[in-house]
């Protein structure tokens, strides 16, 4: 698959639910409502769409959410996707808050998952509870350790928040690197109804880190939005994703499928098409492929994010990160 700007699209992020057992302040607010169960695609329907995308050239597939591990029977989907590995599909990955990862890690590893991204913004129990509105940090830490114990590569994603966790980055990095995990810092993006007033440009975090660490930018191409640094003191890697202060859209290689069957062409824009109706009205795989290719032709060149703003202020743009899967 290729879009109108010559970008090769071989990465699909699949959200299997918009529900979550946490309520991170930058992702949801108290009023965030979940879609009704009947709106959700069945796991079989999600698998059919994944197969269609694999047929179109998707080589990497990431299961996300909401929290993917709260979707009932999600292990079935991992098992099926694992069976597709080596037949066009090269990688099945997961993004999770890790509250249930200790339980799932062995099964995921068995299914062929090699890499897991875990959201971790703090190592302070009280701050974690505040950010997530009630979460138990110890479960997340157990989940990360269990995943490492099963041989899974773990990348820690940390959303940088002004006056919340900006001082903790050195501690998080040292902890993560000791466990063999990359740490990736992400700028808060203005999505849905969530708070975006904690925005802090990543450069300021990097400046602060540079006071104590030697950061050597690598030229590793990860096919993603992150820039990577090798940290000489820890031997680990630090990634930064700065959608607001540094655009990355020119290298975008991905599209996103929501749990209700909407295909979004850009995280930061509302453009999308509904594939659920196509599935349920009995369209053939080829007809659905044609729809996807037609949509891809209008994948936007770049996102609409504005620092400190909120997408919901824009016309018709109200999608929350929990619906799109990050
Ligand atoms: N529940 C899983 C998790 O937290 O990893 C997967 C879904 S979550 C929506 C995917 C990623 O989006 C997480 O790494 C989370 O930190 C990130 N995220 C959510 N809201 C965000 C925001 N407003 N700005 C930047 N990243 C955000
Ligand atoms: Fe849940 Fe992930 Fe959103 Fe946090 S970022 S509320 S863990 S979906």
Topology of this structure?
Elements: E1 11-15, H1 43-55, E2 60-64, H2 74-84, E3 91-96, H3 101-111, E4 115-119, H4 125-132, H5 137-149, E5 153-160, H6 169-178, E6 182-187, H7 202-210, E7 215-217, E8 227-231, E9 237-241, E10 254-257, E11 262-264, E12 272-274, H8 276-280, H9 285-296, H10 321-324
Parallel strand pairs: 1-2, 1-10, 2-3, 3-4, 4-5, 5-6, 6-9
Antiparallel strand pairs: 7-8, 8-9, 10-11, 11-12
Bound molecules: S-adenosylmethionine and iron/sulfur cluster.
S-adenosylmethionine binds at residues 20, 26-27, 64-65, 67, 95-97, 119, 157, 159, 186, 188-189, 191, 194, 321-322, 325-326.
Which features characterize this protein?
29% helix; binds iron/sulfur cluster; alpha/beta; TIM Barrel; 326 residues; globular; 12 strands; binds S-adenosylmethionine
Describe the structure.
- This protein is an alpha/beta fold and 326 residues long.
- The chain has a single domain, classed as TIM Barrel.
- It has 10 helices and 12 strands.
- The protein has helices at 43-55, 74-84, 101-111, 125-132, 137-149, 169-178, 202-210, 276-280, 285-296, 321-324; strands spanning 11-15, 60-64, 91-96, 115-119, 153-160, 182-187, 215-217, 227-231, 237-241, 254-257, 262-264, 272-274.
- A 12-stranded mixed β-sheet has the order 7-8-9-6-5-4-3-2-1-10-11-12.
- α1 (43-55) runs parallel beside α2 and α2 packs parallel to α3 (101-111).
- Mean pLDDT is 88; it is low at 307-317.
């Amino acid at each position: 698959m290729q879009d109108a700007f010559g970008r090769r699209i071989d990465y699909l992020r699949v959200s299997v639910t918009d529900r979550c057992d946490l309520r991170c302040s930058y992702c949801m607010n108290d009023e965030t409502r979940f879609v009704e169960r009947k709106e959700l695609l069945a796991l079989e329907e999600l698998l059919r769409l994944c197969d269609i995308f694999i047929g179109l050239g998707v080589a990497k597939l990431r299961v996300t959410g909401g929290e993917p591990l709260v979707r009932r029977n999600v292990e079935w989907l991992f098992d099926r996707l694992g069976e597709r590995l080596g037949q066009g599909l090269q990688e099945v990955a997961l993004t999770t808050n890790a509250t249930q990862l200790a339980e799932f890690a062995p099964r995921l590893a068995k299914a062929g998952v090699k890499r897991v991204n875990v959201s971790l913004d703090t190592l302070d129990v009280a701050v974690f509870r505040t950010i997530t509105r009630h979460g138990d940090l110890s479960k997340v830490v157990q989940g990360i350790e269990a995943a490492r114990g099963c041989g899974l590569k773990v990348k820690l994603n940390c959303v940088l928040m002004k006056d919340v966790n900006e001082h903790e980055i050195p501690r998080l990095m040292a902890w993560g690197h000791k466990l063999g995990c990359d740490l990736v810092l992400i700028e808060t993006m203005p999505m849905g109804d969530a708070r975006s007033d904690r925005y802090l440009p990543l450069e300021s975090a990097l400046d602060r880190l540079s006071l104590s660490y030697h950061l050597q930018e690598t030229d590793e191409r990860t096919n993603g939005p992150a820039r990577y640094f090798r940290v000489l003191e820890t031997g680990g890697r630090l990634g930064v994703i700065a959608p607001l202060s540094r655009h990355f859209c020119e290298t975008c290689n991905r599209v996103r499928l929501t749990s209700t069957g909407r295909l979004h062409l850009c995280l930061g824009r509302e453009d999308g098409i509904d594939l659920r109706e196509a599935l349920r009205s009995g369209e053939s795989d080829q007809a659905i492929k044609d729809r996807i290719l037609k949509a891809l032709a209008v994948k936007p060149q770049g996102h609409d994010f504005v620092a400190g703003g909120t997408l919901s202020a824009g016309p018709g743009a109200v999608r929350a990160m929990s619906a799109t899967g990050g």
